[in-house]
Specification:
Tetratricopeptide repeat protein; about 375 residues; TPR_rpt; globular
Length: about 375
């Protein structure tokens, strides 16, 4: 995510081991679409394991049931960030024999590739993929809506603010239900935050936090609440930070599923404000300790936000500590390479003939 932004919310994994049962496997082999709703809820708790099961059942016949299973493993491979495995599954599903079993076949595969590219920081290629997916769309407004929002997010990363705003306006015209209108509002607030329009962003975050809390949307309210606290910090409005911090903390505690990454980001912001308002070696040490043990948040897109916090404190030894911490993380967890086979197969070669990509995109907007 861009700097100055608390990007919260990626699925957490817990140690749950779920085996494919015999009935589901028979359904797959017979081409009868199995009821995967329970499998989805269970498998998404451990996406890494589900994705690996592709190799155990890599030779299923082309039918609707098998297609559903492979699409689920593809989603799991993307969530758990396994680019090679995701590419293997996608290339299988790209074969013509699967086209009749997957609605909007090519467009969905390319859009999935865009997500994988975006989460690995390959934003220019992600933009190529989303634009190509839009050009391959079979007329689905729902697909177009979600792909436009993904494209808008990738463009914010590359600081294409005017283009991102235009795309968001297009998505707004396609919103058909309450959830989609909410997505547009959240993306608009994030756009304002990224574009340093902090007062406008704060206004939207406050309204969204109130509405989501009243609606009982606890986890989404927690994410927006953290964004609200982050915005107050960036504005230097610490009185408002203290006004909302207890409510946001209680919202985080109310999340039914794992909440540790939300809460730890809250802890870092809390220690930051304390260090700024009451500077002392004790407060600095507490802030340094918090960020030292918070590098797992890098996997949730928090590295740039924490770097901004370190800059705000502006204590040399903390800056050195954080620089060493991020360098170590990048050595251990380097940015992953994402195969571009699908982009080359269905779209033009990446980074070549950009004017053609722009023309294709303009033709569908």
């Amino acid at each position: 995510m861009p700097e100055n932004k608390a990007k919260i919310g990626i699925l957490e994994t817990v140690g749950v081991n779920v085996l494919l049962n015999f009935a589901v496997l028979i359904a797959l082999l017979q081409g009868v679409p199995p009821d995967l709703s329970e499998l989805k809820s269970q498998f998404m708790l451990q996406p890494n394991e589900l994705a690996q099961r592709y190799y155990q059942y890599a030779a299923l016949p082309a039918n609707t049931g098998s297609a559903q299973f492979y699409q689920l493993t593809l989603k799991a491979a993307i969530i758990s960030n396994q680019p090679k495995l995701a590419n293997d599954i996608a290339l299988k599903l790209a074969l013509p024999k699967w086209q009749t079993h997957i609605d909007n076949h090519q467009a969905k595969l390319i859009s999935n590739l865009g997500v994988l590219l975006r989460i690995n920081g390959h934003y220019e290629h992600a933009i190529d993929a989303y634009q190509c997916a839009l050009s391959l769309n079979n007329g689905s407004n729902n697909f177009r809506f979600h792909t436009l929002l993904n494209l808008q997010s990738a463009m914010l990363h590359t600081k294409q603010y005017d283009e991102a705003k235009s795309i968001l306006e297009q998505a707004k015209t396609l919103a058909e239900n309450k959830q989609q209108h909410l997505r547009v509002k959240i993306n608009l607030a994030n756009y304002l935050l990224d574009n340093n329009q902090l007062h406008q962003a704060r206004h939207l975050f406050k309204a969204q936090y109130r509405d989501l809390s009243l609606a009982g949307e606890t986890e989404m309210a927690a994410r927006i609440g953290l964004n609200l606290l982050n915005t107050e910090i960036l504005l230097g409005n610490f009185r408002q930070f203290w006004r909302y911090q207890n409510s946001v903390r209680q919202t985080i505690f109310s999340i039914a599923n794992s909440n540790h990454h939300y809460y730890y980001h809250f802890v870092i912001m809390h220690s930051l404000v304390s260090a700024i308002q009451a500077p002392s070696e004790i407060q600095y040490a507490r802030f340094a300790y918090a960020i030292e043990h918070g590098d797992f948040l890098f996997e949730h897109g928090q590295q740039q936000s924490i770097r901004k916090y370190v800059e705000m404190v502006d204590v040399p030894w903390i800056s050195v500590q954080f620089a060493e911490q991020t360098a170590q993380y990048e050595r251990v967890r380097p940015k992953k390479t994402v195969p571009l086979d699908l982009l080359e197969q269905y779209c033009i070669a990446p980074n070549e003939n950009q004017s053609r990509l722009k023309s294709d995109f303009d033709s569908i907007t």
